[in-house]
Target: Splicing factor cactin central domain-containing protein
Amino acid sequence: KSSKDKKRRRRDDTSSSSSSASESDSGDDRKRQKSEKLAQKVVSHLEKAHGGSQQFVWAKKVTKELESGKKMKELSIFRNQGREAERLEEIEKVRKRQAEREAEKARREEELTMMQRVRAAQEAMESEAKEEEFYLKAKINKCQRRLQEGRPAPIDLIARNLHLSDEFGFEPEDPWLHFSGLLLEDMEVLDDDIREFKDYDKYDELHGEFWDALAVVSSAELKDARRRDASDRAVLRTREGHS
Model:
């Protein structure tokens, strides 16, 4: 009886051990299946999040990490995703800084170009002013020489009111007097001289106003001179026709 009881207990122990092992294996299988299913969901979610542009091939690695007891937030796939996001963010910062530098460079180049244009314009104006001053002095010297030689032209008698009154010691006189009695050819010469002085002698405000007013008078006098010349020529042609 004692021997039979021992055999029965061994059979029961073996059966219990086998049952426990089977239950353990079954539990491991369920755990593994659960981990694999969860891993597939994680991978599928990340693939959708990346718009299908990146393929994840580490489902087994996710499964293994889940089986080892890691929590979702501890998975390496999420750490990698975080590092990727940081890398992309850093790239975006670099691109933004580069765009800002390029915009700043373009702005500086535009300012430099504008400064160069302004400088060139100023230099051109200064050069033009010097050139006009040179021509003005040349015309004044020409007037002075003719006055000294006693053969003044009408423009010399007008210009000395502004430039040569001290040197020749006379009181300023009415410039309109010098238009009187001029022939057409002389009036055309005087009109040209007045307009040249108007162009060159403009940096003194008083002188500029003087020549502006005189140019208006000269234009009117020139028209009258042309009208008189045409009338005189008509009279001559009539007389020649009767002779």
